[in-house]
Write a structure and sequence with these properties.
Elements (H helix, E strand, L loop, with lengths): L1 H15 L7 H16 L2 H7 L1 E3 L1 E2 L2 E2 L7 E2 H6 L5 E3 L4 H14 L7 E4 L12 H5 L4 H17 L4 E2 L23 H16 L12 E5 L18 H17 L4 E4 L3 E2 L2 E2 L4 H11 L5 E3 L8 H4 L5 H10 L5 E2 L3 H11 L5 H17 L8 H4 L9 H14 L1 E5 L11 E4 L25 H9 L4 E4 L2 E2 L6 E2 L3 H10 L3 E7 L18 H11 L4 E7 L7 H6 L2 E4 L7 H9 L66 E8 L3 E2 L4 E10 L5 E11 L10 E10 L4 E9 L5 E2 L5 E2 L3 E8 L6 E7 L1
Parallel strand pairs: 1-5, 1-13, 5-6, 6-7, 8-9, 9-12, 15-16, 15-19, 19-20, 20-21, 23-31
Antiparallel strand pairs: 2-3, 3-4, 10-11, 14-21, 17-18, 22-24, 24-27, 25-26, 25-30, 28-29, 30-31
Helix pairs in contact: 1-2, 2-14, 3-13, 3-14, 7-8, 7-16, 8-9, 12-13, 16-21, 17-21
The structure holds beta-D-glucopyranose.
The site of beta-D-glucopyranose has 7 residues, from loops.
Amino acid sequence: MKRFLLALTTFALVAGAVEAKTANEEQEAIKFANNIIKKMTLREKFGQLEQFVTRKGVVTGPEGVKRDIESAIRNGEVGSFLSIRKPEEALRLQKMSVEESRLGIPLIFGYDIIHGCKVIFPENLAMACSWNLEAVERAARVAAEESVAAGIHWTFSPMCDISVDPRWSRVSEGAGEDPYLGAKIAAAMVRGYQGDDLSSDKTIAACVKHFAAYGAAQAGRDYNTVDMSELMFRNLYLPPYKAALDAGAVTVMSSFNDFHGVPASGNKWLLYDLLRKELGFKGFVVSDWNAVHEMIIHGVAANGKDAAELALKAHLNMDMVGGDYIAYGEQLVKEGRISEKLVDELVREVLVIKYRLGLFEDPYRYGSQKQEGAYYRPEHLAFARNVAAESMVLLKNNGVLPLQKGVKIALIGPFADSQIDQLGAWRGLGEKEHSITIRTALEERFGKENVLYTKACECGRYKNGLIEGGIEEAVKIAEQSDVILLSMGLSGWHSGESRSRAEITVPADQQQLLDALKKTGKKIVVLLATGRAMDIRNEVEKSDAVLLTWHGGTMEGPAVADLVSGDKNPSGHLTMSFPYHVGQIPVHYNSKNTGRPAKSQFKAQGYSASYVDMQNAPLFPFGYGLSYSEFEYSDLKVLTPTVELGGVVKVSVKVTNKGKYDGDDVAQLYVHDIVAETTRPVRELKGFERLSLKAGESKVVTFEVPTSDLAYCHQDMSWKADKGDFKVWVGADSYATLEGRFTIK
Ligand code: BGC
């Protein structure tokens, strides 16, 4: 039977191979899946809807459903595994499923390839600051190619969660606070992972997560409840998920949080009405880790059986590790609580993606190709170095950077020589041994004799605080040097899932180190390591320059050396506001005007939407980033002062590099809808362009904004643009002052 099925599959695929990219593909896949479904027992169907991890030979799950992997696979009780690190292990399990289970259905292997597989790129928030969509897409493709070699079919990325709360540690995984940029980045990542052929040996399946609104966890506490109006959700949170789906993402992950009072994994409005009926999604949905079972703890299900029923009825296809589908699915059908027709639909959606990945044609293709030469390719490392440099943001510079030739550097701090921290929180299959640290790169660039190094303090998961004698040694080498480079901030462990913080300042011991170094009177350049926006008032005040280096990935060190030496010019721009104080959160550029706006965003004041003890403005706004050059924006021209609804608004601006260094800048266009049906943000990003200008060179940039991009959610939840007057600004950050107007007729 199993052989027959495989033969059938091979036939279907060979016959259908040519049409793989046509509309027929879907029909072929559905037909193929239906043929298998006819042969499946109810238990095998629920098996396809289960994803497990393997730990010490057992598959996980709630009490009573633990069983050994091998019999689970042979019995057809598993459709997928996640987080298998070794291709040999993936291959072993795949063989078992294909050759020893009754129907021989291949497994699909998922993994968190979040910002790189072997070559680790900067964390996603950092990469977004490059505003370089081509680079983001290529980074995803590099990750996909390495994943294929490692036997991975499917990544749990892109994370499309907008967040305005840097206390939430998972901001490192997203693109920042803006839905327009977030949407562009989400789509670029999907294109990078999936290409236009899922069955190619250079692509893998993407997963849009965490659906939905996970980034709005109250108080920035991971997994916390989310509650917001549907209007806000549609305006600010939905666009990146939608863009990723429009780009063709074939899977979606439901989030941990509840939304409008119902946990996402059992939320039929989210997973069916919105996702499938309104947004037209046809792939499959996997729950987040144990999220189906956690509906008991949320308090909407009395037990695992109820939780499975809720999730199945919400049209959630795959249960990640919880085990409730396989434990209770059959009973639910037998008792008439779930129809077998629904189960068939859920199974079909999973099988169709397996088919489209080419798994039925050749289940061993992934990972079985030569791994040698597939990982850490020199051109990928060179590319990662560029991406890291473009992601770093120069926040302050009083002229100390770029460093003079022949300077003697005191390199100090917990992250200057930490191969692990620079990889950030999600490291895919990246090995720290491949990381080139700031220390190694500076020694190479400036000469070993010109770089004195000491760590001075620890910062990470297990060790924290000043090293004995650390300050003394740091001061000593600082005194022997011309300039101090202080690599400080938060470790890789402080980013990603479950690392929420109420304090977003640099830890106190590192501040103590800074104070001691300040007393030496030497110039100080802070190299800020972080995966989130932080309150760095203190560091900005006490230093001469601040370069935001993030967790810059495998090639962070060389990228830092490129920038501080002036071999490259900083060009990153923030995609998340850096608050002035944690108490301002949420602080983001696209706020509402209110009926009583503050007269100044920079002064404390009463009787307005402001504080009486602090400014409203963040320390560094969205879009902000310096360069060694100065870019002047002039001659803003609205080329279409009036435009028909459905037309395109055209605005041009002249950008001149007034400095003495060649460099890149990111020209940004913002609009404000002056009178709308519902209140609109004071500014909204609606266009951007990264441009390269030689010293002294000018360029005219013309933005084209389709009026459809000015659509927003109305009271009746419709999404459309209105006629009326708009303001428009162009500049190098969200404070841009060059202003024009246009009217939509
Ligand atoms: C995270 C997801 C991740 C999943 C699988 C969960 O805890 O929230 O983002 O994809 O684990 O590792």
